[in-house]
Amino acid sequence: MNGMFKNITILSLISTLQCSSQDDYCDSIQVITNFCIKRHVQTITAATCWPSEVSVQLLKKLSAIDKSLSFCLQFKPQTHVTWYRHGLMESRDPIIRKLYETKITPYYESDLFTDAAKGTERICTEFHGFMVEKTSAYRVVNKKWQEDEKCGLYEIQLFKLPHYFPGTRYDVPISIVVILGMAAVTVIPAADADSFKYDGILRVLTNVFLRRHVQTVTAHTCWPCDIEMKLLENLSANDISVSFGSSHSAVVRRTQATWYRHAYLIDLSCERSTNVFQRISNFRVVFNAQNDWILLDGQPVVANETNMTAASLATEIFQTYLGEAYVLPDSGVFLFQMTGQKDFWHIWNGFRASKSDTMRVYKIGTASPESLEIDDLREERRDFRGITLKVNTVIVEKELFSGFKKKISSELDIFSHIHYEMIETLSQQLNFRISLGINDEYGWSYGNGTFGGLMGVLQKDEIDLSGAGVLIRADRLAVVDYTIGTMSFRNIALFRQPSLSSVYNILLLPFTFELWLTAWLVVFVFVLVLVILTRTIDRIKKDVKNSMSTLEIFTLVHGAVCQQGYSVSRNCESIRVVVFVLFSTSLFVYISYSASISALIQSNSNSISSVRDIVDSSMTFSAQISPYGKYYFEETDNHLIKTLYKRKMLINGNKAFTSASEGMRKIRTEFHGFMTEVISAYKIIANEWREEEKCGLTEIQIFDLPPLSIPLVKNSGHRDLFKQKLIHQMEVGIIKRVINQWIAPKPSCQSLHRYNKHIRVSIKEIHLTIEVFGFGVCISLGIFAIEIVYHYWAVHKNKK
C-alpha cells in the first residue's frame, strides 16, 4: 500500500502540471526526474493529458541511458495496422520516427508483433518495451504477476487514437510499458563508501563477464541508481545485456527462457539477498553450467588477518546463503571478497559433490581493475572424495542373473552389464562409490506425466543416475537428462531368403532373353538349311526311300541341342557338314547352360528386401520378447509395420513374441522371419549353427531405434562432468572394448568352405523339370489317343 500511495502522489504531482506552458514542461520533467531518484521511486504511472512530444521527452529522459531496450507491439487485428502505419510509419514526430527506425524496422514483422501475454512476460524477464492496450496489459499483470513483480513498471502514451465508436472514447488504447531497472537505493554510510570503490568493482565485473563469455546479466543490487546505470553502460558497450531484478520468480523464469550463458550478480549487503537464495535454493535449473553466480561481499578483510580467517569467512558466507542450495560440480558460484588493498578482490568458488556432501570452498584467484586471475578447479571438481552416489540398474530376467562380475547372462540384460562397466570406470575416474539398486523394467509413461520403473525412480529424485543405458525417447526428456549416446541399438528382422528355384523358373535363368531368342533362331536356321539341302538332293538323286521329312529334320536338330544322336545318316557331304556344325554349336551351348544352372540351383534369391516384401510373402513372422518390442509396434505410425504386426503376428496370439532360441530355431527349419536383437542372434549363430547354415541370411531394419544413453535426474549438477568422462572413455577405446567383450561379431559366410561341401539337390530345385516331364507325358498320351482314333477311322473308311 505504501508503494501505491507514493504512486498516487506522483500522479497527482504530474497531473497538476498539465496546464503549464511549453517551457515549463522541460523544467517539470527535470524536477520529476530528480524527485523520483531522490525518493528512490521504482514505479511511475503517468496519467496526464500532456502533448505526445512532452510524454516522449519524459520517457527519453528516464530511459535514454540504456541503449539495449528491446521493443515489440501487441498484435490485435482491428488496431495493429493503425498502430503500425499511422502511429509509427507516418508519424511526423522526430523522436517517434527515431523509435521506429531503431527499434522496429530492423526486425521482421513476425518478431515484432506478439500477444499481450508474451509481451508482458518479456517485460518481466527482460529490459523490454511493449506497446499494448492498457486494459490488456492490466488484465495479464493482475492475473499472472506476483505482487513484488508489479513494481518497477512505467507507462507512457505515445499518441492518441480516434474514438473507437461514436460517442465513446477508446480509453487510452495504446501504452508502452517499460522496465527501467531502477531498484530502491540504500544509502551507504560514508565509511563504507570509501572502502567500496564502485569504479573498480565495475571494471572487475566487466572483465569477469567477458572472461566467462556471459551474454546476459541479471543484477540484484542495492547500489545508487547512477552506479547501476554506469554498470549498464559498461556492459552494454561490450554487447552484454543487463536487467535489474528483485524477485526469485524472475530469476527462475529468466533461466528457463534462455539458452545462452547468463550471469546473476548478487550484492550480499542488500537485505533481500538472503531471501532470494532461500527461495531459489531448491531450483536445480539455476545452478548449472549455463549460469554463473557472482556474489559480492563488500566487507573488507583487513591486512593483518590470516588466510585461514579469510577462508573461514568465505566458507561461512557459502554456508549461510547456499547451505541448502543445489550447488553441484557443474555450477559456477563465485564469491568476490574485498581485501584491505584498494580495488583488490579475492575470488572464492564453492560447490558440493552431491546433495549430501558438505560445501567445499576454494580460493581460485584474484581480481583488480588491471588484472584477473581465475583457476577453473578442474581437478578439485573431478574428485568426489569417495562419496556415495545412488545408482539403479535394470535386470529383466533376474533368475538368470548371477552378478555383474560374470560374463554369462541373459541376452536381454547384456546392455545393463555393458553400462555397469562404464559406470564402474566412471566411479574410478571421479573417485566415488556406488550404492546399487535393481529395477525390473526401464519404465514407460503412464500417460499422466509419471513414469514407472527406472524412469520413475529418476523422476522422483530417489537416485543420482542410472546404471543402465536406456533409449533416448522424446517423452522421457521431460523427466530425465541424458549424457551421451553410448552405443547404437540394432533390432533386425532376420530370415533366410527363399531359394532361387522357388521364386523363379531357373530353367530359363541361365540365358538372357536375347540369348534364348538367338538360340531359337539358330535352331530354325539349321532346320531350314537341312530341309532345303534334303529336298534338293532328293530331287537330284530321286532317292525317296532315304529321304527325311520336315518333322524328322526338326527331331534331328532337337536331339543335337539335347546332346542326343540320330540313327538316320545321309550320304551327302553338305548335310554331314551342317550336322557337324550343329552338334559342335549345341555342345558349347549345353556346357554353358549346365554350368550356369548348377550354380543357380545352389543360390538363394534376393526377392525379400523390405518390410513390404515380408508382408506380401508367405513367410511366417515373430519377434523376440523384449522390454520395448510391443510398445514400438503399437506406437509406430508406419503403415507397413502396422500391417506386418496385425497380419503376421497378432494372429499367432501368445506366440507372436517368443524367446531368441526358439525364433532362431524356426529360421533354420522353416521359412520364418524373426525380429531380434543382433546381440542375441549373433551369439546363437556363432555357438550353434554350422558354417554352411550361416550363408543366405538376410537382415532388415524394422525400427530405426535411437541410441542408448545413461540418464540422470532432471537438471542434474553432474551432467556435464559425467559427459566429459564418458566421452573420454569413448575416445580412448574403453567403451569399444567393453562392447566387443559382450557382443559377438556378425557371422560371416565362408563361401569357399560352402562350395567344397557337396550340396544335395532336392525336389524343390527340380520341380519345374518334373512339371515339364508331366506335361510332356500328358501331351504324348493325348496324341496317342488321337492316333488310335484316327487309325480306326481310316480302317473303317477303307472298308467302305
UniProtKB/TrEMBL annotation:
InterPro entries in the cross-refs: Glu/Gly-bd, Insect_Ionotropic_Sensory_Rcpt, Iontro_rcpt_C
Residues passing through the membrane, by range: 506-533, 577-601, 772-793
Keyword line: Cell membrane, Glycoprotein, Ion channel, Ion transport, Ligand-gated ion channel, Membrane, Receptor, Signal, Transmembrane, Transmembrane helix, Transport
A molecular function GO annotation: ligand-gated monoatomic ion channel activity
Localization: Cell membrane
Domain Ionotropic glutamate receptor L-glutamate and glycine-binding span(s) in chain numbering: 407-498
Protein name (database record): Ionotropic glutamate receptor
Organism listed in the record: Cinara cedri
